[in-house]
Design brief:
The complex is a heterotrimer of chains A (251), B (105) and C (133). With 251 residues, chain A is mainly α. Helices cover 42% and strands 8% of the residues of chain A. Chain A has a three-stranded mixed sheet with strand order 6-5-7. A two-stranded antiparallel ribbon of chain A has the order 1-2. In chain A, helix 3 (53-66) packs across helix 6 (119-130), helix 5 packs across helix 6 and helix 7 crosses helix 10 (226-238). Mean pLDDT of chain A is 93; it is low at 7-18. By secondary structure, chain B is mainly β. In chain B, 0% of the residues lie in helices and 50% in strands. The model of chain B has no long low-confidence stretch (mean pLDDT 97). Chain C has one helix and eight strands. Chain C has a five-stranded mixed sheet, with helices on one face. A three-stranded antiparallel sheet of chain C has the order 1-3-6, with no helix packed on it. The model of chain C has no long low-confidence stretch (mean pLDDT 91). The chains are: A mainly alpha (251), B mainly beta (105), C mainly beta (133). Chains in contact: A-B, A-C, B-C. Chain B binds chain C through residues 16, 27, 29, 31, 55-68, 70-77, and chain C through 45-47, 50, 68, 70, 73-75, 77-85, 87-97. Strand 4 of chain B pairs antiparallel with strand 5 of chain C.
Chain lengths: 251, 105, 133
Amino acid sequence: MLRATIVAAACAASMAAHAQQRPIAADALRSGITYAGADIRAMQADDLANPGFLWVQRGDALFNENCTACHRDAASMRGVAARYPAYDPPAKSVLDLEGRIEQCRTERQHKPAFGRESDDLVALATFVTHQSRGLPMSVSIDGPARASFERGEAFYTQRHGQMNLACTHCHDQSYGKRLYTETISQGHGTAFPAYRLEWQGQGSLQRRLRACLFGVRAEMPKPGAAELTDLELYLAWRANGLPIESPGVRR
Amino acid sequence: MEARINIPPKVVRNEPFEVRLQIRHPMETGYRTDDTGKAIARNVVRSVTCRYNGDLVFAAQLSSGIAANPYLRFFVTARASGELQFEWVDDAGVRISERAPVVVA
Amino acid sequence: MVALAVRPVHAALPSIPALDGWLAGRTPRFARIKLSIPAIADNGFAVPMRVAVEGPFAPGPYVKTIRLFSETNPVPDMAVFEFPLPIERVEIESRIRLAGTQQVVAAAEMTDGVVYAIATEVIVTLAGCMDGT
């Protein structure tokens, strides 16, 4: 099954970049929230009960303090999260949203970086993502983003860790099945940064990916590592069309 | 320390109205250890009070048994327009006050 | 809202020393108080719960406090919610931490000393994968 997926992807890539076959067809895409229990769904659906809004609020304050000198207002951020990760010409690499915010901070504002898993960066990324709430994921894998995408796809289909599992084994081949008491989702990142009950707080998609790698007993790349950004791009492309949920709530 | 308070924009005299309070706080249990094995001291929001135009209408004593980023939803009977004044304090002695207006329709 | 579970209401309370100490010999009544809590918690770190006491109350005794007790947490006294002024809608919602499958007890104390109580079991499972972040 895995070999067939890789062969299919390779064939598709050689035919036309735009016509790349996605592992899950557009009409079969399902958000992780549809695999979550009733309590998680209720928590995410009720804006007054959703704890992620504490970070939206903090991000709002940080945005006004730090970003409005150039970025006018929050409304100007609408659509941004939907197209990240994206190739960034000054950086000459693909950046995810957090990486782009850090770049603004260090290169344009000449201030010290927040730090990838810092609360402030999580809050800002949550706030910016929130401005794209409900918009479909729409990343591009064309041109200079292509190499990163292919690395991300390779990472996704490669076995990792002591458990020797690839992402595709769970998230393409086993979604809907039980893993202990949980139901395996399709593995989209469209609800991140999210409030994860297991973290008792808000965290980034890269943190969730690192947690998955820990789960298969693999060494976790450092936050901000290129392979995580490549994987994020692959996942975003794989989820293109799914609406962004922000702030997401997950277990 | 972030907090979110939600009260209906207009309330009806003598009717109960819903109050929602969400506080950013780790509610550190005191049972966790850090990476060096050292215990992380307990720090939870101990006490929350809600006064309505000065009168205490709700109070809560919390413990580590309340989830991180504590969330409370309760009701207050509307009387006169004015404000709700919230105050909470944690084990570290940090005391926060927040206000929210009450508008009786 | 909290998922309402249809499962048997216990007409007896689990033995929790902190609860017995607070009751101080009083016999609770198993009526009027409802505890809405999932039968199976998504995650023991944050279990949504709602306690409500059925009115009407006026002109008689009203609810003074609602207490929450845990059967097996290291800290059995989870919370005390106080209602200093008479209120007709007695309802409190929060999220609690449960260190494993156990019974949760909610008890309402009236201004005349009567206690209404309820005990409900919650199954708490571990996550499917460990999270080392």
